[in-house]
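[job 4471] stage=fold_predict status=RUNNING
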Amino acid sequence: LGVWGLNKDNVWAVGRSGTILKYDGTNWNPQASGTTKNLASIWGPDLNNIWVVGATIINFNGNNWSHINADTTNYLYSLWGVDKDNIWAVGSSGAILKFDGTKWSKQVTNINSTLFSVHGVDAKNIWAVGTGGEILVYDNNLWRSELSGSTEFLTAVFATDVNNIFVVGYSGTR
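[job 4471] inference complete, writing structure tokens
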């Protein structure tokens, strides 16, 4: 389940069985997603380029939703980007995919933890969090593990700048 918007008149929500709803400032309107697979997260650089991940990856071009082949079977829980050429998705078995404006590519993580959330401040400073207290940091175009001091599931990350990264998780982890 995810929600994202560009402004108060363009908010999107995604969920189970391919559900996509668009809020136009007054009403929530169902969208034809073209899938019955569960959807977990949504993000876009503009109204003509919106991405959704979950049990599949789909893209909205301003008119229609299309299935995108990203060569992964991993469930993707979270999506975040800087612009149309720098978008990341994270998911099961340590999966991290990066969209470069043309195609999705697998990133090397060397972990098997499920990653639930990804966020950053620019294309060089990004964090991903997941099971077992896992924190990954994107540094010099590589993902490296960082100690969290927790073994709990970390479920969300948010960064305002490189010195202020907020992480939350199970059992009151923060």
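[job 4471] summary: Residues 40 and 134 are 20 Å apart (CA to CA).
[job 4471] exit 0
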